[in-house]
Please model this.
Amino acid sequence: MSFLTLSGLVKRFGSTTVVHGFDLAVERGEFISLLGPSGCGKTTVLRMIAGFETPSAGHIIIDGADITRKRPAERNVGMVFQAYALFPNMNVADNIAFGMKIANMPQAAIEARVTEMLALIKLPDLAKRYPYQLSGGQQQRVALARALAVKPQVLLLDEPLSALDAKIRVSLREEIRALQQELGITTIFVTHDQEEALSMSDRVVVMNDGRAEQIGTPHMIYNHPKTRFVASFVGTLNMLEAQVEDPANGIITLAGHRVRVASGLDRLPPSASCMVALRPEALAINPAEPAANALPCTIVDVQFLGAIVRIKARCGDHILSVDTFNQTGAPAWSRGDAIALHFNSDEIVVLA
Amino acid sequence: MSFLTLSGLVKRFGSTTVVHGFDLAVERGEFISLLGPSGCGKTTVLRMIAGFETPSAGHIIIDGADITRKRPAERNVGMVFQAYALFPNMNVADNIAFGMKIANMPQAAIEARVTEMLALIKLPDLAKRYPYQLSGGQQQRVALARALAVKPQVLLLDEPLSALDAKIRVSLREEIRALQQELGITTIFVTHDQEEALSMSDRVVVMNDGRAEQIGTPHMIYNHPKTRFVASFVGTLNMLEAQVEDPANGIITLAGHRVRVASGLDRLPPSASCMVALRPEALAINPAEPAANALPCTIVDVQFLGAIVRIKARCGDHILSVDTFNQTGAPAWSRGDAIALHFNSDEIVVLA
Amino acid sequence: MRESRIGAWIAMIIGTLYFLLPLIATFEFSLRLKRGEYSFEAYRVVFSDPRFRDSFSYSVTQALATIAVGLIIVVPTAYWVRLRAPQLRPLIEFITLLPLVIPAIVIVFGYLRIFNSSSLIPLTDTSLGTDALLMFGYVTLALPYLYRAIDTGLQAIDVRTLTESAESLGANTFTILAHVILPNIRAAVLSGAFLTFAIVIGEFTFAALLNRPAFGPYLQLIGANRAYEPSALAIMAFLVTWACMGLMQLFGRGVRMPATDTR
Amino acid sequence: MRESRIGAWIAMIIGTLYFLLPLIATFEFSLRLKRGEYSFEAYRVVFSDPRFRDSFSYSVTQALATIAVGLIIVVPTAYWVRLRAPQLRPLIEFITLLPLVIPAIVIVFGYLRIFNSSSLIPLTDTSLGTDALLMFGYVTLALPYLYRAIDTGLQAIDVRTLTESAESLGANTFTILAHVILPNIRAAVLSGAFLTFAIVIGEFTFAALLNRPAFGPYLQLIGANRAYEPSALAIMAFLVTWACMGLMQLFGRGVRMPATDTR
Model:
């Protein structure tokens, strides 16, 4: 049986239902991300696990014990907030020690654990500093240490990186992931940033409108989105309308061109319309080795974004976005150039 | 002579100097971005052009007229702020008309111009809406229309996209650039986002600590950064220490391997140390065609970021970051794999 | 969670009783003018007293003048402090808090000393001059509330960006204040005005010391000489202030009411 | 820019004169007890009056009791409202503003009516009971200032996140209030306390109507019977309140003073 089980969780605020029958089974030591736009209910799910919201229906079970109705203080759950939420009147050591003092741990044990936690977050010399003397990244690491000090069964992270600068965000997310793997602590991470979710998690739950749209590994979520919402929310992509030509052999027509599709056509009748998705980075311009499919296009715009050069190309009525790396060897495309976009048949996703 | 000239601009607040002798010559119709981290003085330069700050020294000349000491209301300069700054008590039409009413334009002319501006920002039906009824993106377009309605000589944009959601930010930046090119208005754009600066501008001014570090086209700034600051601020990159071996033939030693460098070694003596920069996307893993240089490495980490898979590889004491597209055909790398990183000799930048 | 909720409800109930009990007791007493039955006789007596009508209308006039002068002083000051001298805000707040803690008696003694018949500006020589002096006293008294209300209103809008937007579109300071700032702090201005109104209507010390026929001293006079009428008057004063507070809440919470003209 | 700056300076100067002139005039007058020379004779007379010392210490005691009771009522309420019932904030603010606009006379009449000798709780029968009644009246009077100060303090910290952090670390409500919330609003608590102190010291109506030997009625008594001493007293009252305000500013601005113990 799984370590943390959410079954049929429902949360209503007045007449609006923000979480509709949410189910999730998390293994011990797993890192799960709840990913979705604001208002999708991801934070509400997290707050129900923490005990700050009481579910309108459903159960929360940790390690076999039903904690659905327990008060936050009675749960053994650590929480890190977006706003760093360190106690401003206490120094770093006292912040980390807070939960242990509440639990009446002996002073010597507390001190040892504080030292251990400070080493873990790589801030061994900052024990006497006050929160206002720390940078945002340091504060968030202390908040993490404070939550971990009491050895919680589950660690909950509520957008802990959102308030930080871009560069610190990237380095801290790598640190958090390393720490989580080192301690083997079961972790639920809430974020609206797809890159964070994909890079940190064992599994990602993509949420929309209070429901889980898809649960899977980052690779599955990104490369095999099940719904249109998942496809468009996780990464940018070209969404195109196509006609089914020969479902048995996986052939569709895209802007008048025959295109071979690896899967997803079984349920569709011939000459039906369908939506297909193509990721901008899956397209290759005039490659040396031709791929299974090729679409002749005309370049309508070239945007230099730094590492990536984004090319917009017209194919019939469709405008396709193509990403290429800015490399010295690469040809310099310009508006009006005629090109062929190649892609493999398994890069094209037929959406439900 | 250039249309807008900033010469020797200095701004002190008390004893701190936030802008040190800033020079810039902007051609008529040019789109210039001031790019830099917060506190680099970019906003102060913009506010001096608008007249909200008085320079401690230096001159601001627009179309031959020195406006250094003029009050904001006497300058013919349009400004768009990060906070949308629409007048909450006026509807969209009245907001756009405000400047023209101040200028005592006849009512009929004002109405015609308002209609024209609403068509320009593609919101022809929202004339009677109030700001609080608009989305952030719509508000910012109205703010743009309000600034442009009085036909300013120069348009100033102070991080106009920072408060918007990621997707709207991208679409609005394309719209602003198209509008600017259509009207041919001289524009100064302040941002801390390198992608915005690179994708929108004719030229980019990278600022650091109140000084212009480098002024050039987006391509020059990104591919040929002059200083270490520019290289690290514009994009992410691998910064490595190397030894000069044979400056005449452009040979350096990197982690014990001989590497050919296209340029930048002329000033350095043999066996000197130097810093070189390599962009993560310039490196190819075991490519079909070998490039000029190759470094044998071991993979230490693989991060799945969605469109991009970031691989960290160890070469001697150096850890190199390598970006590859997530493509179905690409091999799935994992920790411990031995690979060779190939790159051309003109991809390596020797920093001053 | 539950324990704190119960404690807080108890605190709130005590707080409410604090205000409701005296009010109910006063109301009940005010109905007992006729022996053995409840009646509104005390209210009838009060309304038919011409001194009641005179003093009430005098105080209303004073209140309106106080509001006008107070706004002319406070709005530009609060705006300017927010815009150009935010570092002065603690000082200004300190100054505007002074009338709360300087006993009214000090202010009045001072004014009498400055403006008496033998001074350079002998305001107290004429009845109109004394009225003006009283009004300025009220402005002082209302300053803390007026300033706080306006400042809170200004806090809710982005004064600096709005001002700079308007400046770069060619507007001068007067246009900005009249067409950009004021329409957007209307609710705060009204809220401050109603509070000022309520304060002036109930004020006693100033009016008594300057010997003006205001509502406060009339209340005191009746209170000293009658039994039931003072309770009736107190209830009426409460209703007037309640109405003011209600209007304040209404405008404070009200939807943004847009002005259609921009000049 | 320049025009608005000048206008604002003028407004500020007028505002300052508003307070300074009466003060200076009063001070000057207080020095003229001895004919033909300036002296502090009036102050000496005041200080040597035992009624001055008695009434002043009575009022100080009242002020301290008011502060204690006020804080016990206000801190948990304001905390709970911010945390669990933010939708009640307008209502609570409205209630706490009531004492500002209900004439003091209504409140006192009501209290006398409820707690007189023939009532269920005959507080006014004993001197201690009346003292308690007066203190509760002062709590009412101080409520708006105390609530605003505490609420502003709570606004500056992230009450909800701090509470939830502490809760998930196992803390109960009392621990959270005592060790997480209170230490972080110390400045606000002190500021509210000093303001309350200043108000109670200068209060007249309540004390006079309940016939308690407080400082306010003593001030009034001297004011009615002497010429120069009232000015001296007024100046002293001003200095006391000034000191309170100064302390308020000091603590309001003061650096965060950390507590070392967490339990």
Observations:
- DSSP finds twelve helices and no strands in chain D.
- The interface with chain A takes residues 157-158, 161-162, 164-172, 175, 180, 183-184, 256, 258-260, 262-263 of chain D (CB under 8 Å).
- Residues 81 and 92 of chain D are 8 Å apart (CA to CA).
